[in-house]
Amino acid sequence: MPARDLPLLIEAARAAGEIATRYSGKLARRWDKPEGAGPVTEADIAVNDMLAAMLPSARPGYGWLSEETEDDGARLNHDRLFIVDPIDGTRSFADGKRTWAHSIAVAEHGRITAAVIYLPLLDRLFAAAEGQGATLNAVPIATSQPAGLSTAEILATRPNLEPTHWRDGHVPAFARAYRPSLAYRLALVAQGRFDGMLTLRPSWEWDIAAGDLILREARGRCTDRHGAALRFNNSHPTVEGVIAAGPLVHRALSEALEPDDAVIPGTPPDPPAP
């Protein structure tokens, strides 16, 4: 089934790119979602409408979860579903930048089995099917393997480096970097361009579903903030933070974090500012 779904996701991602790139980021109509949920543009809606028509019609038995579709809970009655972020990095898109992505995945019984992250303006298509490895533009990729955290470069926002999150208040001396799209951050770690990705706040499933599989298929580890395997199609579609890296860096990050520093389900994900 993963091998059957992946070509469909690739086709859908490329079609999404064709739609989104018709809009000029800074000129695209933009408004804010209710309750501080962030911005949305007419491009997000156009891409979502296309994907919502294309994907469920190709797989009638699959459920649907998308950032830009109101969740009515019907997906909970499906063993398989699409998990979609029409444009991950909407602020980047609206600012006319290039580091935004389409993120599309299939989950089966809570586990991601096929996934695509596509950045049309950078011509980068990350893809994976369960058990078949991960690729960037059809070339196999793998996570990096640095000697330890002291030589690692980790994608994270500044709030994740507050001493309260770390054992004895000691923040490891890794280098910090930032990219606006959470999906793209996961893909960059899978590619080996960065050594890890960390977010300690709750994360929406549509932001991380595709990246979870791509990173695992690139021989990395992707877990929640407490080291548990990520599970999807939750009644509230979030997971408790994400640690993503090659095995050695993942273990080092997990051991350095304060174990009692629990995230609060339902609170907003990491803010967009670096």
TrEMBL record:
Pfam families: Inositol_P
Binding site for Mg(2+): 67, 85, 87-88, 207
Superkingdom in the source lineage: Bacteria
Record GO biological process: inositol metabolic process; signal transduction
Keywords: Magnesium, Metal-binding
Keyword Transferase: no
Swiss-Prot/TrEMBL cofactor(s): Mg(2+)
Family that this chain belongs to: Belongs to the inositol monophosphatase superfamily.
Protein name per UniProt: Myo-inositol-1(Or 4)-monophosphatase
Organism ancestry: Bacteria, Pseudomonadati, Pseudomonadota, Alphaproteobacteria, Rhodobacterales
